[in-house]
Structures are given as C-alpha cells and as structure tokens.
Specification:
The protein has two domains: 142 residues, Beta Polymerase, domain 2 (2-Layer Sandwich); 85 residues. Helix content is 48%, strand content 17%. By secondary structure, it is of the alpha/beta class. It contains nine helices and eight strands. Helix 5 packs antiparallel against helix 6, helix 5 packs across helix 7 and helix 8 packs antiparallel against helix 9.
Length: 228
C-alpha cells in the first residue's frame, strides 16, 4: 500500500476541485481527520490513508459520485467496500486510488462507531490556505485538539499512532477544549463513557514516553474523575 505525502494530498484535493467543477456538482464540504490532517499541518511526512468526514447522506452520495466518476486525466477511486446499512449516522466507505494505491476512508458524521463530528468541531475547523480558492470541493481541517481527541480513542498502539499523538502534544494543545469537547460528546451519547478507560491508557502511554506534561496530567485527572 502506497504512502501519500503532504504534496500529493494537496495535488489530489486540487484535482478533486477541478473534477467537481467539471461535473457541476453541488458544493461539497469535507472535513479531514487523522493522518491526512496531520500531514497537511506538516506534523508528519506522509500517511497511509486519508480520512474524510461529511455531515450527511446527501454529501456522502455527492462525494461517492465525485470519486467514482471517470473523467480523462482526473483521478478515479475504486470502492473497496461501503456500509451495509442505509442511514445517515456512521455510514462509511473505503476507496483506493487507482494509480497511487493509498486508501481514502469516508464517514458520515461519526467515525468508527465512536466519536461524532459535532457542531463545535465544525465551528473550530479551518480551511487551509492551499484550498481557500476552492468553490466546489471545500476542504476543512478539524482542530489539533479535536484530532488529539479522535486519535486518543480510535488509534491503536502502533508506533506511528503514538508518534502522531506525541507530535500533537508537542505543538501545544488547549486541553480545556479537549475536555469541553469530551463533555459535549458524552452529553450526546452516554455509551461513549466506555471509551474513557481507553483514553486514560493512551494518556498514560504518552506520559511514559514524553514525561509529565501539565495539560496531560490535568486531562488524566479529569478522566479519572468521570470514570468513577
């Protein structure tokens, strides 16, 4: 499976804008989470997959049509699988780039049956300078704090996942935003409390590698308090 660099991600997303313009589709808003987000921020050199979240089924369908439509000299993504269910929340599909071999994973509103792309996350998301000219394929990066929250409950303990979390911590995070968003997520879905122990484990793992960062200590104390 090929890795995709920051430069390649930028190139591919510009081609998506060109393709969307030629197809005259309704404007799409896509939110990048995971490794693609970190690569565009310059926090990692490459990623093996790009994770995209859209807000509803209509946007999901528009994106699927855009990815699969064949146009000369423009990228076509091959669908590997899609959700068997037919409702908005948590619908997903995986695509592979027909030439470069990297994965593109698409989710509707909720990622891997865990956290939601909430209204507050959407409000914090920003359009990178490289994509400010886009009119049909609008690219947003969710905040570093929200990426940290996602990765702390969805990543495995692979070396690159831990490295991603460390890179985020080293940029300087506002842990009050992380705590506030976690409270927001729990208010939407009490079942997410099952993720608290996993998140505590991630924080412990981080502190064992980079030391007792003040914000991480505060976050762990909060997690311990609500876990009881």
């Amino acid at each position: 499976m090929g890795a995709v660099t920051r430069e390649k991600i930028i190139s591919e997303l510009h081609l998506m804008e060109k393709k969307a313009r030629l197809l005259h589709i309704e404007p799409l808003q896509v939110y990048l989470v995971g490794g693609g987000n970190l690569a565009l921020r310059g926090l990692k050199s490459a990623t093996k997959d790009i994770d995209i979240v859209v807000l509803n089924r209509k946007q999901f369908s528009l994106l699927q049509n855009l990815l699969e439509a064949p146009l000369p000299k423009l990228p076509v993504y091959v669908r590997q699988y899609s959700s068997q269910w037919n409702y908005d929340l948590g619908m997903s599909a995986r695509y592979i780039h027909s030439l470069h071999g990297f994965n593109l994973d698409v989710f509707v509103k909720r990622i891997l049956s865990k956290l939601y792309l909430s209204e507050s996350m959407v409000l914090r998301a920003e359009v990178p300078g490289e994509f400010e000219s886009h009119e049909f394929f609008e690219v947003y990066l969710i905040s570093k704090e929200d990426i940290f929250l996602f990765k702390s409950v969805t990543s495995t303990e692979r070396v690159r996942d831990v490295e991603d979390l460390i890179a985020l911590v080293e940029t300087g995070l506002d842990y009050s935003i992380i705590i506030q968003e976690l409270e927001n997520q729990l208010s939407m879905d009490e079942s997410l409390k099952d993720l608290i122990q996993l998140m505590m484990h991630r924080v412990d793992l981080l502190m064992s590698q980079i030391g007792a960062v003040k914000g991480l200590i505060h976050l762990r104390e909060y997690l311990k308090e609500i876990s009881g």
